Please model this.
Amino acid sequence: MKYRMYVDEAGDTVLRIPLESHRQYLCLTGVIIEYDYVRSVIAPQMEALKAKYFEEHHPDEPVVFHRTSMMKEQGAFVIFSAENRRQQFNDELLGLLRNWDYNVISVCMDKHRCFKDFAHRSYELYHLCLRTIMTNYAAFLRRLGQRGDVLIESRGTSDDIALREEYKRLYAEEELHHVLSSKQLIIKAKASNIAGLQIADLLVHESRTEILHENKRGGKPAPFAERILDVLQSKYEHQNEQIWGKRFLP
Model:
């Protein structure tokens, strides 16, 4: 059995003022799914949902779930201007997110504090988050006695090159390379219609909201976000009833 972790981020590595802005925080979320389960269950059900609600959905030009576009009712998601249609879709999507079998690992970072303490260059902040979720992913794989690889959404040419180099360094570490099935990091664009990446995109913002709220760094989640968070509670990686699938840095 092989696993894959799909990784997306909320935020960026740019250091901004004012310090209390929500952009002060970077979050990476990894969605861990058994590889064949994606093909046999998640991808077909996700595509069926798209075909049901979006007339323009086509294999050659697929509708890709992107939280920002959905919230702003852009492109194909203009149908959400009809509240009843939005509600029907949300209910079905949440049902799928709840029923699908996957695990979630999230790490949220205070960029300014971590840059001061750990990073020499701002892009290394992303690498620090990646190292954290990779370490937890490795522990997950060891616990199951399985191996897996990692697929990350593209961040642009120069950032992707740096990410591949960081992954090689991580792979060389003894605690990681025994459970990672590939020496190469897989990088795909958002438009590639990767089911696991779309799940990560839909979850990472709400996961960041929750972690910040728990650490007294943000307000209470909005009503729909609370419905997402209710789903997440059963998906965060946990052991012995203790959740260790979410972390705040430093």
About this structure: The first strand starts at residue 2 and ends at 10. Residues 147 and 179 are 5 Å apart (CA to CA). The chain has one domain: 2-41+105-249.
